[in-house]
Design a protein that fits this description.
heterodimer, A: 25 helices, B: alpha/beta, D-Maltodextrin-Binding Protein, domain 2
Chain lengths: 572, 339
């Protein structure tokens, strides 16, 4: 965003330990940044230790038969999903921010809702809906008068193409969020100048809006790609052989956890390289906007155009949310899940919300603390620590949870030893037993969303404000509290929403790290899915959706104004 | 540092931390079997014995969790499916041997570890869901899945799924790796579509006419037939055949089994639970609610499962199948089975 680095307006970066600690914000900056880094470093170190414990015996086989295929499939899947999610997310965000048309306001909060549908659940639902025996093909046969499925052509949902569709239609909201926030705060001056020079909306889109939105699109797409790479269940079900799946196969079928850790780390290096490449690609572009600029007024669409805009937005809402939502509702009703209400479900729902809230608050505190304090004390090591913390999102949840087990289990054992020293009997698990381990796992995985949004929000805050405040004698803490924090509130709200919803539907770490006798809504659904009857979990799935909808609507309503929630161009 | 704290206060806090999982009258179970599935079992156990059961279920990683928790782990018992996982738990060094004449009497020697590190509790067979309309054969073999007469007629889920991994491992245990590779290439050539979906989807695809033979576990079909009206049509269009290996006429079975954890804080209760699981009450639940083959010969197989015919389990030692799992996974990659 702003090309001015914080160092330029904060005076020279402190060098050496003394300056560092005297900086006023140095100590808290170090605490926050190191805490953020530790969250990701701990599992990474235990993965690395695992990886070097194994030999390289596996690699000739992997190189010959697994990796080429898996890379090909993974690349096509990620590319395809990026195109689908990117197109839908960017196009719908552009429509609802650029034009005024009937239904636009409702669409602004309807469009992000597919976010609440877990990917693997979407895969099950779409297979049911679109397969030969599903309602869609049934209707097709009835209308077309076909006797057998062999008599007509219908694309198989259990295929690479099907997977691209399923992932794309539930993941596009990441792009939508990022793009919408960016477009809302895009200065009117450019667009108006172009319009005055006779540019039509599409030319405006191509030459002004899209290039300006590139950082936001990049972030949205990175989130989409990493969510795609996180998945195991949907890929296997739809028959796509991804790299993540081969990590899993190596671990379980080849009984080689070290081999699995090796593949996971290689994957992580590739991901980091690709993300760095993208950032390098736009290194010379500046996205600064002077804050006085207001977004352009939305021209009213009329007649056919309004209908087209409405229809274009309704398609992804219908496919990504309404259809699966109605499916779940139907299963809930026909299976009597309401009348035969499982009393445990209330407890599971409350547990899920509590864990998700705790993780969201942890991430927001860490992210805001780390980013704000390192702005005041821009030591390169601190910034590296914050960047390291953001890597958690690039590690598939299963792998992250496996990596977190040794440090968390070790800490618990250490606490137990201390307790015994004080005369307590029996064992205890302070972290795993209390659910804290799960909150840590969520935080490690989703910290990137927090730091990304906060960095982006903060980079729009003009350094002039910092200087003015300092000249008036404000200390760094006061500056952060009274100036920065209020200004990044929309960014925190947006990040908080995404993190909260992501925690609600998180599955692999929840399965592996939750305490005894505890279920989250997603582990509750999973136990039915694992048994081949995911429909029994329909009500729990609706509860995830319901818990996700409330904050989505709140956030979107509060940000459907000129100030918008800040785009996260620097996330990841 | 510690001196600056009030020591008694700190001690009180540390002691007051939850230690409920270790109180008397409890047993802590880590399970790969879904909570909902086994809850009726544990409720019955608590009713019988007064011992409370605390549960955590997951799809993978429980051995790693137990290992990471170390001596501090609350885990007493690990319930798992698949012979490979039972062996993995033993190899991970998290188990301890059980000495129980009662268990040895109920569980056939073939379905327990000679040293008592694991016991099979129930069984499922990997079978064919065939089209009622298009397949008239009464007896089929795993071997003939590679026969060109089934070209374009076979459906199954990923070859790397744990159930198929064990079936392919069993084939290797029977005929050796070279023959197994040839067979797997033959099966691959006969597939109607790329491996995908779960076991239920194979019945769905046979019902839809996409293929004639779907491969799945015994209980999925029974659940569709007896318990899920919306899937009854798939069961109605198919029939279950218990296939056999040509060389010994046995059907491939896999185990759900149980191990006692080395660091078990409630060892006696853990052993009690394991023995109870092999007892008649539990075995009836396994048979009639879960549609599995009970391990206890005193307990009858559920009528729906019995309708498949008489099961003649493959006598190949389970440990030998487990040892071939890695080779099976590699073969699936090598022949591009899932591609």
């Amino acid at each position: 965003m702003s090309t001015t680095t914080p160092a330029q307006f904060n005076g020279p970066a402190p060098r050496g330990a003394v300056r560092f600690w005297r900086g006023g914000t140095g100590a808290p900056a170090a605490v926050f940044a190191l805490a953020a880094a530790a969250l990701t470093a701990a599992p990474l170190i235990s993965l690395a230790l695992l990886a070097i414990r194994g030999d390289t015996e596996l690699w000739p086989h992997l190189a010959a038969y697994v990796i080429p295929q898996a890379i090909g499939q993974t690349a096509m899947l990620v590319a395809g999903v990026s195109v689908v999610a990117g197109t839908i997310g960017a196009a719908t965000a552009w429509l609802v921010t650029t034009f005024e048309f009937p239904g636009r306001r409702a669409l602004t909060w309807l469009l992000p809702l597919p976010l609440a549908i877990p990917t693997y659940l979407a895969a099950y639902i779409y297979v049911d809906l679109f397969e030969v025996s599903g309602p869609l093909q049934g209707a097709l046969r009835a209308i077309g008068g076909y006797a057998r499925p062999q008599d007509y052509w219908f694309p198989s949902i259990r295929s690479l193409g099907g997977a691209i569709f399923v992932f794309g239609i539930v993941l596009y909201p990441y792009v939508y969020f990022a793009a919408r926030a960016m477009l809302q705060t895009q200065p009117a001056s450019f667009a108006e100048a172009a319009r005055m020079l006779g540019a039509r909306p599409l030319a405006l889109l191509r030459h002004i809006t899209l290039p300006l939105a590139r950082p936001a699109l990049a972030v949205g797409l990175a989130l989409v790609a990493l969510e795609t790479l996180n998945d195991i269940g949907a890929s296997e079900y739809l028959g796509v052989q991804t790299l993540t799946l081969s990590v899993f196969t190596t671990w379980l079928n080849r009984s080689s956890l070290p081999g699995a850790a090796q593949i996971a780390l290689v994957m992580l290096i590739v991901i980091v390289a690709l993300l760095a490449l993208e950032r390098y690609g736009r290194r010379r572009r500046a996205y600064a906007a002077t804050s006085a600029d207001l977004p352009p007024e939305r021209p009213q669409l009329a007649g056919g155009r309004a209908i087209v805009a409405l229809a274009l937005c309704l398609v992804p809402v219908t496919l990504g949310f309404l259809l699966p939502g109605f499916y779940l509702l139907r299963e809930t009703v026909t299976r009597g899940l309401v009348s035969g209400f499982d009393p445990d479900l209330t407890r599971h729902a409350l547990t899920t919300v509590a864990l998700a809230l705790a993780a969201t608050l942890t991430v927001l505190t860490l992210a805001a603390g780390a980013v704000l304090m390192t702005r005041a004390t821009p030591h390169p090591l601190l910034r590296a620590a914050v960047a390291l913390g953001a890597l958690g999102y690039a590690i598939p949840g299963t792998v992250l949870a496996l990596g977190l087990l040794p440090p968390v289990g070790g800490l618990d054992a250490a606490f137990a030893t201390i307790r015994h020293a004080f005369g307590a009997t029996g064992g205890s698990q302070i972290l795993i037993g209390s659910g804290a381990a799960l909150v840590l796992a969520y935080a490690a995985r989703f910290l990137a969303i927090g730091t990304g949004f906060v960095q982006a929000g903060l980079s729009r805050v003009s350094p002039d404000g910092d200087d003015a405040a300092r000249l008036l004698g404000a200390r760094p803490w006061t500056l952060a509290r009274t100036v920065h924090l209020p200004l990044i509130r929309p960014a925190l709200a947006g990040a908080g929403l995404l993190i909260f919803v992501d925690c609600l539907k998180e599955l692999p770490a929840s399965l592996m790290l939750r305490p005894l006798n505890v279920e989250t809504l997603s582990t509750y659904i999973y136990q039915f899915a694992a048994r081949g009857s995911f429909e029994e979990g329909a009500l729990a799935a609706l509860l995830i959706v319901a818990a996700g909808i409330v904050p989505v609507i709140q956030i979107v309503r509060h940000t459907d104004v000129a100030t918008g929630l800040s785009a996260p161009p620097n996330a990841l | 540092m510690l001196a600056s704290f009030s020591r008694p206060l700190l001690a009180a806090v540390l002691i007051a931390l939850p230690a409920a999982a270790h109180a008397a009258g409890e047993v802590n179970v880590y399970t790969y079997r879904e909570t909902k599935l086994i809850k009726p079992l544990f409720d019955a156990f608590t009713k019988d014995t007064g011992i409370n059961v605390n549960v955590i279920s997951a799809s993978s990683g429980l051995e790693q969790r137990i290992k990471a928790e170390g001596a501090n782990s609350p885990a007493d018992v690990l319930l798992t499916v698949d012979i490979g996982r039972l062996e993995d738990a033993v190899k991970a060094g998290i188990t301890q041997p059980i000495t129980s004449p009662a268990l040895d009497k109920v569980v056939p020697a073939q379905y327990r570890d000679p040293e008592g590190h694991w016991y099979g509790i129930s069984m499922r067979a990997r079978v064919f869901y065939v089209s009622k309309e298009r397949v008239k054969d009464e007896a089929l073999t795993y071997d003939e899945l590679a026969d060109p007469k089934w070209k374009g007629k076979i459906c199954l889920r990923s070859g790397q799924h744990i159930y198929n991994n064990a079936l392919i491992a069993a084939y290797i245990a029977h005929y050796g790796e070279a023959k197994a590779e040839e067979w797997l290439r033959g099966v691959k050539a006969n597939l109607a579509q790329k491996p995908s979906g779960g076991d239920r989807e194979q019945a769905r695809d046979v019902a839809a006419g996409k293929c004639d033979i779907g491969i799945g576990n015994t209980y999925y079909w029974a659940l569709m037939n007896d318990k899920d009206p919306s899937k009854k049509a798939w069961a109605d269009a198919t029939r279950v055949v218990l296939p056999t290996f040509k060389d010994n006429g046995g059907t491939h079975v896999n185990l759900s089994g149980v191990v006692l954890i080395k660091a078990a804080p409630n060892k006696a209760n853990g052993q009690k639970l394991i023995e109870w699981l092999a007892g008649e009450t539990a075995q009836h639940i396994y048979a009639d609610s879960n549609y599995e083959y009970p391990m206890n010969p005193q307990v009858a197989v559920n009528p729906t499962i019995k309708g498949y015919g008489t099961l003649k389990p493959d006598p190949t030692p389970m440990a030998k199948i487990a040892d071939s799992k890695k080779a099976a996974a590699n073969l699936v990659d090598k022949v591009g089975f899932d591609n």
